[in-house]
Protein: ATP-dependent DNA helicase RecG
Organism: Streptomyces cirratus
Amino acid sequence: MEHVPALDEDLKKTLGPATAKVLAEQLGLHTALDLLHHYPRRYAERGELTPLADLADQIDEHVTVVAQVADARLLTYQGSRGGGKRLEVTITDGSGRLQLVFFGAGVHKPHKDLLPGSRAMFAGKVGMFNRKLQLSHPAYEPLGADASDRDAATAFANQLIPIYPACAKLESWKIAKCVDAVLPRAQETVDPLPAALREGRGLVPLPEALLKIHRPGTKADIEDARQRLKWDEAFVLQVALARRRHADSQLPAVARRPSPGGLLDSFDAKLPFTLTEGQQSVSKEIFDDLATEHPMHRLLQGEVGSGKTMVALRAMLAVVDSGGQAAMLAPTEVLAQQHHRSITEMMGELAEGGMLGGSDQGTKVVLLTGSMGMPARRQALLDLVTGEAGIVIGTHALIEDKVRFHDLGLVVVDEQHRFGVEQRDALRSKGKQPPHLLVMTATPIPRTVAMTVFGDLETSVLDQLPAGRSPIATHVVPAKDKPHFLARAWERVREEVENGHQAYVVCPRIGDEADDPKKKSAEDESEKRPPLAVLEIAEQLVKGPLAGLSVEVLHGRMDPADKDDVMRRFAAGEVKVLVATTVIEVGVNVPNSTVMVIMDADRFGVSQLHQLRGRVGRGSAPGLCLLVSEMHEASPARARLAAVAATLDGFELSRIDLEQRREGDVLGQAQSGVRSSLRMLAVIEDEEVIAQAREEATRVVAEDPELTGLPGLRTALDALLDTEREQYLEKG
């Protein structure tokens, strides 16, 4: 009898070492359970053919098609090494035609099998020859109707054929045979959903869902299975997040209330403007959380330029008022330095506590980054451990073991999507009791993604721009079709500078990658031309359209002291045009900058363009953002740019962005293992399932935090968290 593997058994015994090796290396499938969760990507019907018309978008990709042979011709040809045979087969499916080609000794079998009128599944890499699409030496599986009677023939014609995500070494139908070998084990899978939930929602049991997803009898079977498997993914993930929220809510924390007439009141009294209603209501939510004896866990989503830093600073001052310290964690040195500069400017003499001329109620604000010199670093560490510094701003250098606080009361994480959950936890462990946590992001996040990626946090939204903020006009500049538009863009930059303002020019790469020939050649193969570079564009501008203006460059590989010097001189107005990479994407605040030109704008994501654009229009003069692209007007990339030009609403743009990207990009590193656990769930489309799963998960965890009565759920949860830890360590 053929061996049927246990769910957690290695696949070598059942499928043989060679197949098991390909499954493990190419598709990350190691056990029978992994294979059961490797779902078909789509289904072909024997009675209806797969559209060949769609293949034009899939050049160089491995595809599986079901089609009928229209024509087969065996040709003899003369080559440089003598003669040979070539079999050309044309297949059709009603939507289009495709040529298959076989050479040499490989022509005999297909010449017998692929007769006109026969039907088969074909798999191969889509190529182009003489301007026509073709598959060269495709693997194929004939679909011969050998049914004896009409009913059986009809059933055969309507059978759904699963098409699996495949790879060059293992075609879809071979994966289907591997799945057949483990499918009997589906009966042993442990159901993670509580029976009451499953019955209440009308969901099929897990073994049935697995059988229906792999071997459906009807389209309704596929729908039943998908609905059920989506619920598994959403629910297990939401239980993990609900348990995290529950555990956090049980932790003790020091309540931090600002003292009347203290540092916060002094700061507010000096403000030259009134806080927006949004800033006031979000601040109230934060202060209410800070006043409780459990740690705050709040996500602050703010539209670009909505004044998040002001809200975070007031929260930090409230904590310093109550005798604690506050730490702000930024993803890059440029951003940490920028925050340090702007916070000390906002605080004025209040940031000079203990210094001559400082306010009695002031505190010290220190900067801590990895590249600081030893004397400055030593002083910063000393100020933290003695409590002399109430506020510290730094990069991940703050997480290092050597950093000790006198009494850490609040951690503010800027641009959360750049940090993993573990990094957040490492900083939180530095308080005597868990500190309060405020996470900020300037990338607006649709509700479902917030529930998925940041599901362990409560959410506040700041969507109102402060008074005095100017509108930003955005235009697409088609550099290839209309070169005079680009010339006009540089004239606009010169006009802004002559009117006393400043400009940014953003490029996708730095330009000193020539020392890495491997990188260079790969880039040249995949691109028609390499992305435009900071160093090259800066040189062209200085010699050409911006000659005579003060132009400087800024990028991530510069020495930190040089970066800081350039940013300081740009902020002071000495540098008129800053040619930079995306290091200026977040947090950089120079109100006098009114124009930004983004080169090769089609190479950036929608949300990233929105972020970059937010660097201009921060003062009283209107902002202008020019998106330069060589892409054709009808291309999807140009449609993306048009969407950015059409609206300043970050939430609307983030939705467009997510619809155009893959789930993995959405989830990013913030929940490191979530990506691999979402095979069926689509974060944008399945909003309702995610919202309902969150409610159910919160209820289940409140009733039974340890899940003692739900062993199946515990098993699924352990598997999810293991993946998460593994993925995180791999990224390490």
Remarks:
- Confidence is low (pLDDT under 50) at residues 147-154, 515-527, 662-676, 725-732.
- The first strand starts at residue 42 and ends at 45.
- The first helix runs from residue 12 to 15.
